[in-house]
Amino acid sequence: MRIGLAGAGRIGASHAATLSVLSEVESLLIADADERRAAEVASALKGRAGSVRAAGTVDELFGAGLDGLVVAAATNAHTELVKRAAAVGLPVFCEKPVAPDIAGTLDVIEAVREARIPVQVGFQRRFDAGYTAARDAVVTGRLGWLHTVRSCTLDPAPPPREFIPVSGGIFRDCAVHDIDSIRFVTGHEVVEVMAVGANRGDEIFRESGDADTAAAVLTLDDGTLALISASRYNAAGYDARLEVLGSKDSIVAGLDERTPLTRAQETGGGNVYGSFQERFADAYAAELRAFTELVAGRIENPCTPEEALEAFYVAEACERSRREGAAVRVAAVRVAAVRAGG
Prior knowledge:
Rossmann fold, 2 domains, globular, Gfo/Idh/MocA-like_OxRdtase_N, oxidoreductase, GFO_IDH_MocA-like_dom
């Protein structure tokens, strides 16, 4: 099949490398707002299994007779690209989010439904072996009934300063992965949140109305408590884990010899994960393989925009709770979104 890639930045270049060696992908066409960057990524991948070349513009990408489109461009370009693909009946893989806010996400969902094309959203933890094993342990009843879930996303260093004011905030940009994985693994919805944030680092976070460190307690619809911890300053390395504790047993995803945790009686160091791309390399590859299966019509969509919307509702509730200093019901966020759209 012929796949187009919109966006050749950090995650786009990584996706290009994966797509270029998938047996299902006969040719890969890459476009970026910076044409030189797209050309450099394409040139670096020459000689791979499939044909790889750069497109001069996004218009050229859409006129190339694609079978599927991977969207890895800047967040503010996601909505337009997904809706444009929907208008021409082109299946899409889109890095989260499909839109920067709830209203935009609802707009994309409506366009996708009308076009009747699949849009797979990039929540890669759904494809990580540890997270899928944790889900299986829950589904089979091995853990018994759940009482506590603990999830963390700890970045080794903040993102570029220019990204922070447009990121949507630590819950919408970062902890939304924890929210989605909690829903995915437990099979339950979040009904209420209580969240807090702190700023101990660069003033850009405070100036942007954001936090560099945050925590939240989520109450699920079966009474399970889920705790989320997120930070932009975990200098020991990149750390993403999910602990699921039940009445019979417990399980943890993301704990291995490269997890940046050191026992108190030992010294630090070692070959830790340096980035989210490194930690979830296999999961990123698995989700793109799934996309080619989706394009071929062999599987159901593993992560729809509707699923992403549910995680977004919870992230929005967390952000409101952080700002207001009070518990927020997710249903209230959903109702407010419907009223705003009506």
